[in-house]
């Protein structure tokens, strides 16, 4: 498939995520790859728009390490 | 009229060797057909390859009903009705897309792509969040055979396997032409609108009597041997599978000729990669598969597989039908796929000859059927020379109306239930 114009890596000392617009499905999606674990997530336009509108507080809730990824459940 | 009255009427209008012309021209009959056939029996909707990725969706139809075929993130395929549970707006407008959720354009109600309501704006108006238990409508039963997705509005009744019966084997025969055992419907769809009743199309698909007349020009231009398959001397047969399904079984002729890919108008030498892949996948059996070729089968009421292309018949009114067409693509067979696409465009594309010929006949037929006399349509051809094969199916000659009689027998059963 190869890279597109918008490809890149968003990285810092805490995380590295490869970002790419994927066009293999019925409409474009954002493909996110956690480069440290290889885990991939696709986000469609409606999900992205939701993220844009997420209030800061909700985002912080999601960042709580025990919210989902390390919930201990 | 009461249900009993109309039952008696269809009993009278559909007879073993003739059917009444009004069955094609009456809006009341069409309304009865929607209820008793299209919203009761199994109807082909789409193919899993059209929603290949998680969260893919496409808009499909069951007759005039607008159906969203979606694949949720867990991989399951859903058939949802394209109607917001709030005030009925269309939820999806695009022909295809990829989204985990659908948001209605009217008041923003949002649904998972599996149909559940996620939420609605300004929730206080409903007494808070999560107060409503409303979702998208769904086709009550969904079943898949070899990637072909069928839906039924009847919550119970015969299973898809029971409905398909031995016609399922013809779908299997198409799929095994792929070295990987899968087909893909990814070539895109053409839509042809005909001013004709849907049954004229369904009947014509396995009518072996018309090709030599209607398609004479394309057969001669293409120097094709197809015409001869549909003649009095042909060893090909027409078979009624029951449940309204039928086929033109051309295998006896292809076996007689014994040439791999002869059914496709080409040779082993011109498709070396494909033939090698098929022999690797199927071993000894490959020879027979390559000689016998693809099926020519009409699956009641709306799926027609014509060797290298596939049609779905969508009725919109008693005299309006849309024929959706795509080229079959065999997974793992790029050489074949290119040629299938070219042949499909040449025969049933916008400037193709085959479908234009047929459509001309459907439309002339519809006009003629509107005339008052004589009232009946004759479908007796070959009834004196039919036999029943070892699987219990009625078989007639290549040019006989055996398929039509099978169609009408099932029609009558559904319409008089
Ligand atoms: S009709 Fe869909 S949100 Fe109102
Ligand atoms: Fe035809």
Q: How would a textbook summarize the main sheet of chain A?
A: 4 strands, antiparallel
Level of helix content of chain A?
10-25%
Radius of gyration of chain A, in Å, reads 14 Å
In percent, how helical is the residue content of chain B? 25-40%
The CATH homologous superfamily of the largest domain in chain B is termed Naphthalene 1,2-dioxygenase Alpha Subunit, Chain A, domain 1
Return the structural class of chain A.
Answer: alpha+beta
**pLDDT below 50 for ≥5 consecutive residues: which ranges of chain A?**
1-5
**Beta-strand segment tally of chain A:** 4
Question: What portion of the residues of chain A fall into strands of 2 or more residues?
Answer: 25-35%
How many domains make up the 3D coordinates of chain B? 2
Measured distance between first and last alpha carbons of chain A: 38 Å
Largest sheet of chain B: 9 strands, antiparallel
Cα-atom Rg of chain B, whole angstroms? 23 Å
What portion of the residues of chain B fall into strands of 2 or more residues?
A: 25-35%
Organism (chain B): Pseudonocardia broussonetiae
Family (chain B): Belongs to the bacterial ring-hydroxylating dioxygenase alpha subunit family.
Pfam family, one (chain B): Ring_hydroxyl_A
InterPro entries (chain B): ARHD_Rieske_2Fe_2S, Rieske_2Fe-2S, Rieske_2Fe-2S_sf, Ring_hydroxy_dOase_asu_C_dom, Rng_hydr_dOase-A
Give your account of this protein's structure.
- Chain B: Keywords: 2Fe-2S, Dioxygenase, Iron, Iron-sulfur, Metal-binding, NAD, Oxidoreductase.
- Chain B: InterPro entries: ARHD_Rieske_2Fe_2S, Rieske_2Fe-2S, Rieske_2Fe-2S_sf, Ring_hydroxy_dOase_asu_C_dom, Rng_hydr_dOase-A.
- The complex is a heterodimer of chains A (73) and B (417).
- Chain A contains two helices and four strands; from the N terminus they run ββββαα.
- Chain A is of the alpha+beta class.
- Chain A has one domain.
- In chain A, strands 1-2-3-4 form a four-stranded antiparallel beta sheet.
- Chain A is globular, with a radius of gyration of 14 Å.
- The model of chain A is unreliable at 1-5 (pLDDT under 50).
- With 417 residues, chain B is of the alpha+beta class.
- Chain B folds into two domains: 43-152, 3-layer Sandwich (Rieske Iron-sulfur Protein), CATH 2.102.10; 165-416, Naphthalene 1,2-dioxygenase Alpha Subunit, Chain A, domain 1.
- Chain B is built from 15 helices and 24 strands.
- In chain B, strands 14-20-19-18-17-16-15-24-23 form a nine-stranded antiparallel beta sheet. A four-stranded antiparallel beta sheet of chain B has the order 6-5-4-7, with no helix packed on it.
- In chain B, α11 (272-282) packs across α12.
- Classes of the chains: A alpha+beta (73), B alpha+beta (417).
- At the A-B interface, α1 of A face β4 and β7 of B.
- The complex binds FE2/S2 (inorganic) cluster (FES) and fe (ii) ion.
- Fe (ii) ion binds at residues 204, 210-211, 214-215, 358 of chain B.
């Amino acid at each position: 498939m190869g890279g597109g114009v918008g490809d890149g890596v968003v990285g810092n000392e805490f995380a590295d995520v490869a970002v790419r617009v994927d066009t293999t499905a019925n409409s474009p999606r954002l493909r996110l790859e956690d480069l440290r674990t290889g885990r991939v997530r696709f986000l469609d336009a409606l999900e992205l728009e939701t993220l844009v509108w997420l209030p800061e507080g909700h985002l912080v809730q999601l960042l709580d390490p025990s919210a989902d990824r390390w919930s201990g459940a | 009229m009461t249900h009993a009255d109309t039952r008696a009427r269809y009993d009278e209008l559909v007879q073993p060797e003739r059917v009444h012309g009004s069955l094609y021209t009456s809006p009341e009959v069409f309304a009865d057909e929607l209820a008793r056939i299209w919203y009761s029996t199994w109807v082909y909707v789409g193919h899993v390859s059209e929603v290949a990725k998680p969260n893919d969706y496409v808009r499909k139809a069951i007759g005039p009903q607008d159906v969203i075929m979606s694949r949720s993130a867990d991989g399951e395929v859903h058939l949802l009705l394209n109607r917001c549970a709030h005030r009925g707006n269309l939820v999806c407008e695009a022909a295809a897309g990829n989204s985990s959720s659908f948001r209605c354009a009217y008041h923003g109600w949002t649904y998972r792509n599996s149909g559940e309501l996620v939420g609605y704006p300004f929730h206080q108006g409903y007494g808070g969040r999560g107060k409503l238990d409303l979702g998208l409508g769904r086709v009550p039963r969904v079943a898949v055979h070899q990637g072909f997705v069928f839906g039924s509005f009847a919550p119970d009744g015969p299973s898809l396997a029971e409905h398909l019966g031995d016609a399922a084997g013809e779908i299997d025969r198409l799929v095994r032409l792929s070295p990987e055992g899968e087909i893909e419907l990814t070539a895109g769809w053409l839509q042809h609108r005909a001013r004709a009743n849907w049954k004229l199309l369904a009947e014509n698909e396995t009518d072996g009597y018309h090709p030599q007349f209607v398609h004479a020009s394309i057969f001669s231009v293409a120097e094709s041997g197809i015409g001869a398959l549909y003649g009095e001397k042909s060893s090909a047969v027409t078979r009624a599978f029951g449940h309204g399904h039928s086929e033109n079984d051309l295998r006896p002729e292809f076996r007689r000729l014994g040439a791999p890919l002869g059914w496709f108008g080409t040779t082993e030498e011109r498709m070396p990669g494909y033939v090698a892949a098929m022999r690797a996948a199927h071993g000894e059996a490959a020879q027979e598969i390559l000689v016998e070729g693809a099926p020519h089968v009409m699956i009641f009421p709306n799926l027609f597989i014509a060797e290298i292309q596939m049609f779905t018949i969508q009725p919109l009114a008693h005299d309006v039908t849309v024929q959706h067409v795509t080229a079959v693509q065999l997974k793992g067979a790029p050489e074949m796929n290119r040629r299938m696409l070219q042949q499909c465009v040449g025969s049933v594309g916008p400037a193709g000859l085959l479908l234009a010929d047929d459509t001309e006949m459907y439309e002339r037929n519809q006009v003629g059927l509107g005339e008052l006399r004589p009232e009946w349509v004759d479908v007796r051809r070959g009834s004196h020379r039919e036999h029943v094969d070892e699987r219990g199916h009625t078989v007639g000659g290549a040019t006989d109306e055996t398929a039509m009689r099978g169609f009408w027998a099932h029609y009558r059963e559904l319409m008089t239930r």
